[in-house]
Amino acid sequence: MSKLESLHFQSVSFTGLAPGARLIVLGAVHGNETCGTQAIRRVIAELESGQLNIVTGSVTFIPVTNPLAYALHQRMGDRNLNRNLAPTDTPAEFEDRIANWLCPLLTRHDALLDLHSFHTAGEPFVMLGPEDNRGTLEPFARAAEETALALSLGVHRFVDGWLDTYAAGVARRLAAGASSREADVHYGIGTTEYMRAQGGIALTLECGQHDDPAAPSVAYRAIHNALAHLRLTDGPAPVPVVGIEALRLYQVVDRVHAGDAFAHSWSSFDRVTTGELVGMRHDGSPVQADSDGYIVFPNPAALPGQEWFYLARPGTRGMDRGQPRG
Asked: What would you measure as the largest C-alpha separation in the chain, in angstroms?
């Protein structure tokens, strides 16, 4: 039996006796990000033992969303599952088959919590969608509900601006003559963007560095808090966090050549100043910060043509509910 033939998809659902919200929780969308998998399995065990009970609504857990990448202990199987996520009648890559199974599941739920981790050291943070808008890129009308859920998760750093920033990067790639799928704005559509397009609310929680022993606990607390916030469990509602640090992504910089290298080891949310050297291109030309801000998602192993790092500036999301950090 081949490795592919030995794989399967698994979801585990629990439904309360009374109607309520429908939550879906994902782990291992990227196969080397296992904190969510560990936390989900811990919560499932609590539910199966009766230590925890779903009293209203329902929750669906997917401990391993990408079983091929998980089996390979790497970020992706054939491609990044969290890009260009949509059902297809002509699945060519393994992630297409996941999408054909996952997307209908997402559609049947009201809220999504997608648990991730990141490459370099850094503090956990939650990625929010757009503010309410009627635009064509990502129209949305549930920002207040999404922000309230984010404030319940127990982390203090909020980041938004993902799809706007990705779309600007796509425009730049197109202007430079790129013809790959990374030069398609739809390639920026992942689990949360797909969920919002179906009318739901959705959050990505980045729980810490991949191997941080605290990351599974961050994910576990967030699951419990989300269940309580949405009233699926009968425990007290979590107190919204205070001390919010809100940031907004505004620029993505691609790695264009395998010889492109960072000036030093960056961590997410390291501060940068205008003109500061971030890295060097393979031809010796510098890559510098265009303003004061923060570096986000630095990926020294990024493939050529894909995102190398993002830049962020101070934002406002959540600050009307939580107090900003001093």
From this structure: 64
Q: What is the pLDDT of residues 154-175, one digit of tens each?
A: 999 999 998 999 888 888 878 7
How much is the pTM? Answer: 0.92
CB 126 within 8 A of CB 159: yes
Burial class of residue 11 (count of CB atoms within 10 Å of its CB; 0-12, 13-18, 19+): middle
> Which domains, from first to last, does the chain contain?
12-245 (3.40.630.10), 251-314 (2.40.50.100)
List pLDDT tens digits, range 39-77: 999 999 999 999 999 999 999 999 999 999 999 999 999
Which tokens in the block code for residue 94? 């393994």
Tokens of 67: 């079983």
Tell me if residue 89 falls in helix, strand or coil.
Answer: coil
Dist. CA 317–CA 322, nearest whole Å = 9
Could you give the CA distance from residue 104 to residue 214 in angstroms, rounded to a whole number? 32
The helix-helix angle for 215-229 and 143-152 (nearest 10°) equals 130
